[in-house]
Amino acid sequence: MAMAYSNYSNLSRAQLTFEYLHTNSTTHEFLFGALAELVDNSRDANATRIDIYTEKRPELRGGYLLCFLDDGIGMDPNEATQVIQFGKSSKRSPDSTQIGQYGNGLKSGSMRIGKDFILFTKKGDALTCLFLSRTFHEEEGLDEVIVPLPSWDLKTKEPLTSDPEKYAIETELIFKYSPFKNEQQLMEQFNKIESSSGTLVIVYNLKLMDNREPELDVETDHQDILMAGTLVEGVKPEKRSFRAYAAVLYIDPRMRIFIQGHKVRTKRLSCCLYKPRVYKYSSTRFKTRAEQEVKKADHLSKIAEDKAREAESKRVALEARLGEDLSKDSRAILRKVQDSAMMMRRDADMKKMILEAKQRALKEPKELNFIFGVNIEQRELDGMFVYNCSRLIKMYEKTGPQLEGGMACGGVVGVVDVPYLVLEPTHNKQDFADAKEYRHLLKSMGEHLAQYWKDTNIAQKGIVKFWDEFGYLSASWSAPPSSESRYKRRRAMEIPLTIQCDKCLKWRTLPFQMDAVDKRYPDSWVCLMNPDSNQDRCDAAEQKQNLPCGVLKKDKQTAEDKRKELSEKIKQQQEKLQALQKTSTIKSAADVKKLPLQVSMKPTESTSQATRSSERSTTRPRSPPLPALLKNAQSTAPSRAASQRSTRTPATPPQPSKVEASRSRAAAKPPPLAARPVPKASAKTPPPSRSSRTPAKSSPAKPAAAGQRKRIIEDDSEEEEEEEEEEEEKDDDDSEEESEEEQPQTKKSKLAAAVSNRGKVVEKSTPPKRGKLDEVNKRSQPQKTQQKPTTPSPGLKSISVQPHVAKAKSPEKQPQQEPENDPKNAQRDKGLLVEVRVNKEWYTGKVIAVEANKQSVRWKVKFDYVPRTTPKDRWVFKGSDEVRLMRPPSPISQTPDTQQETEKGPAPMEPDTTQPGTSREVTDSLVNMLRTMLRYFFPPAFRIPKDDVNSMSAEELVAFPLKEYFQQYESGLQSLCNSYQSRADARAKAVEEKSNSAEVKLKEADEKLQKLRTNIVALLQKVQEDIDINTDDELDAYIEDLLTKGD
């Protein structure tokens, strides 16, 4: 290890710069959270009292010092050096109940309050001072963080140092940049620590607001520290007053807190509520922190095992080397090595046991206690208070029925204490690191909150009547209750007063006394003042709060209800499909004139607003709206995909429409939607797939519209991720319910659910596949013998309006008329998905570069997946036998003209939005099912990573090497079966050998028993000659009889 360290001595090291002190402090957005960090340190030091006070110093920025003085265990000089190590904490352990875990709170909290702090601590016979000053670094122009750390002897006040020069520099810096200018003033600060040990932290040069006033207001209320510039109305008291925040900072306060010399009346929230009730909650969802602990324990176990093996190998080698050398020195060395190996092995076994215990704990459900009660003192202060290891993290979190904004569950406060192994807080202790698991916790609390509301029967008796009983006579929810004595007595009778003894720190519940209403109890209240004779001394045990226990009752949905719900959903989807397939018939030129002048994919301002407003709704349409005329326009020869769709949906095929042939399809525009408008998706367009990308020149869409579509698609993907997360949480909740009810869902029912989901409209319109594009091309292609796009014929004929095809193929611009090898046209081929033949095998790829000359066009194709021996890209000639467009359309579903057009070059194609999404949904469902099956049977060590399957497009899945995949799967399965077979054979052989051995032993035992019986009979006959025993049963009966007589 020493050699390795010497090898690293010349390497570069990360350095902590002075600017990090400010950067680190910015994690505290909530200023009271920074103050609470210093209070947490006192609590972790087992302090029984902390005084938070200010001293006026007009010469300093802010005008005063902010001081934190506690009577905790303090720090010696060695422990104080750990304070200046960022991120190092001796409190960190899996089972720790201490709040500090990150080794960062003192630095980040104090630097958030002010620019400088000085710490005085006393422990044992040592006094230690720690000075961390940003002012010092700025004045001296330092980049590194330098922290003076002098110490003195408690009795003699002499410096504890072996380097007088270092001590002189440290004290000189403290005298120059701190508020204390000589050693006497420093000793006066140490004298403020009156107990045998403790710590004093002084923060100065406080941060100011824009008006040059300090952020903390100590002038308005001399018994409190307020958040400057905060209004009284509309702000929770804990957000404005540090006294109010400190009162609820801990779920079970055991430390007295004094602010400006006056004691804070700390609260146990569960004792301040009307009709409190506790609900037991268990869940296997919270795994993040437990998994981290298992990973850490596994790492430590492996290290310990390696050390143990190394020590044992040394022991064996030494024993072999020494041989029979039994000299005293040899025995001493051998004993030392043996003891070391034994200790290492014991440590490895202990680490292994810890790992196994944590692995078991990972599988066990985590249990929490939700406590709910009604705040009848201030009903507007309601919501969830979430603690972590007894420290407040989130407060007034609305959940469940409280989010609806009505009077249901109004005034109800929820309390939960979450241990570290369930949820881990962020560094500033104002949130939780795993937001997803925290949302799940709030959701679960919301469900139990609704159950509590039912159990209290407040709604059944009347919510207004309930609040009237306690003096809430105003119609305004935030109005305070009546101060009449009868209402005060009513509230005091329902909530017994709980107060903490100033001496033993135990909580005592005082009996209700009529004259004690509004009584002001002294800060130094002790048990002796308790009118309850059973609790009037400090040695009396603290009474535990006995809360009634509630149970969450989940409504079990019967199979009949599920069937009805499913049939209702299917009916709704069928109605939507029928509405989408309705078309309007054009009978005259007047009808054509009523069509809109353009089909623009750019969303208007109103549609974007509709999109934003519809995001809040729970039911969202999943497909983009289209004019009724364009919903399902039929071509003369329906394609195979269209016939499949007509068989899947019970909608009637629309009649062909007639229009003047003199108007070209490029001029024909769709009418506004006559059927039901779709509010959300009106601003959305389906993103084009890789197979349907076209060059910018061939597409008449405007760049602005394209950019708008891109933004909308990104927004949609974010919404989709959120909904997927909600669905995942819902699935997790369902799985928890099923585990509680002991009704596991079978694979068969899961498959049935997947099949039923096929009929549902998907969240996001998927890119059309090649088959769909072929359908668009075919349906937009005029009949060869009847219609020509450039030669209009008089009279009215039946046509179908196809907006995208009409835009892409206009009579004015014919792609076929332009030379094929034109470099400008050739560049349009970029992005095409093609298949290239390499060594008699076809591989899929994408055209990434194009070279064109007068004779030919060359494509550079980058392959998706190829063997390692094959280059990842290749140049091929366009139109050669070695290349073809991916999945060319079959001759059955296309006319010769269309085939030729496909072979010549990529026609400008756009996504087909003129058909209802049934076949698209079926395709997506099949793609998802294929992905699931591929992941389920995925062979180990396959050349394509398993995670890549999730991100594969439909085209990539088509090119997936299934043959190789199943060959590897079958070989793996065969080897697995062979191993099972060999193991089974070995076990059978072992069992057979064991059985034979047992039979031999049984035979030997029978022979011995028979011989023994014979000897016993012979012995009895010698003793008693007339005895007659012929069978074993007679012998047994005779011996038993002799034993009975003997007794």
Topology:
Layout: H1 2-8, H2 19-25, H3 31-44, E1 49-56, E2 64-70, H4 77-83, H5 105-113, E3 114-123, E4 126-133, H6 134-140, E5 151-153, H7 164-177, H8 183-191, E6 198-206, E7 216-217, E8 226-227, H9 237-240, H10 242-247, E9 256-259, E10 262-263, E11 274-283, H11 288-322, H12 328-363, E12 366-374, E13 383-388, E14 391-397, E15 412-418, H13 435-456, H14 458-461, H15 463-469, H16 485-494, E16 498-500, E17 507-509, E18 549-550, H17 559-580, H18 589-593, H19 605-614, H20 640-648, E19 657-660, H21 703-741, H22 747-757, H23 770-780, E20 796-799, H24 803-808, H25 823-826, E21 833-838, E22 841-852, E23 857-863, E24 873-877, E25 883-885, H26 896-904, H27 918-936, H28 954-958, H29 962-1023, H30 1032-1046
Parallel strand pairs: 1-9, 11-18, 13-15
Antiparallel strand pairs: 1-2, 2-6, 3-4, 3-6, 4-5, 7-8, 9-10, 11-12, 12-15, 13-14, 16-17, 19-20, 21-22, 21-25, 22-23, 23-24
Helix pairs in contact: 2-5, 3-5, 11-12
What does this structure look like?
By secondary structure, the chain is an alpha+beta fold. Helix 2 (19-25) packs across helix 5, helix 3 (31-44) packs antiparallel against helix 5 and helix 11 (288-322) packs antiparallel against helix 12. The longest helix has 62 residues, at 962-1023. The chain is extended. Mean pLDDT is 75; it is low at 1-5, 597-715, 737-818 and 888-917.
Distance N terminus to C terminus? 76 Å
Which strand order do you get reading across the main beta sheet?
A: 5-4-3-6-2-1-9-10
Strand residues, percent: 5-15%
Number of distinct beta strands? 25
- Specify the biggest β-sheet: 8 strands, mixed
Helix/strand class: alpha+beta
- By DSSP (H or I, 4+ residues per run), the number of helices equals 30
Uncertain residue ranges: 1-5, 597-715, 737-818, 888-917
Instruction: Using the alpha-carbon principal axes, give the shape.
Output: extended
- Overall pLDDT metric: 75
* Percent in helix: 40-55%
Radius of gyration, CA atoms, in whole angstroms? 41 Å
